[in-house]
Design a protein that fits this description.
The protein is of the alpha/beta class and 172 residues long. It has one domain: 3-Layer(aba) Sandwich (Rossmann fold). Strands 1, 2, 3, 4, 5 and 6 form a six-stranded parallel sheet that branches. 37% of the residues are buried.
Length: 172
Amino acid sequence: MHPIGDLLVITASNGENLKLAVRFAAAAKAQGQSAAVLDLTAVDLPLFTPRAMAAGTPVALAGLEAQLQGASRWVICAPEYNGSIPPVLTNAIAWLSVQGDDFRALFNGRPIGIATHSGGGGHTVLAALRLQLAHLGAHVVGRQLVSNSANPAKDETIADLLQRLHRLQPTP
């Protein structure tokens, strides 16, 4: 079962998407929610491979999993990387999905919002991310946020996405 009320804003870059994640966390706090930012680029996970998995669970994975499990809702801010999901996010999902007997356990029923600040347009990363998260059983908010240097994220859009995310109830 997911805890109720906490928001974790996950960023898959330490540049513009980190800035966007900080804006999401600040907006959530302004709405009276508790919120924290998780920068995946600061988590020391080796590249997921069958050999790496056979060598044992990375030390950083338990902390990452606990932080993710501790929040009932997530917003993921990720740049478009070669038309898809950035490797740091794909790698984290790969490691998290092999923990326990059910690869969907951490994601199943969890409300998630998705956003991007991307020089490459951003629509394909959000489509790929929506597809992967839905496959893992998450409830992805219908509205998403696409921004870039010519079209920066608007405070109203961030607030609306957070309100929509807050209305989704986590399911066990």
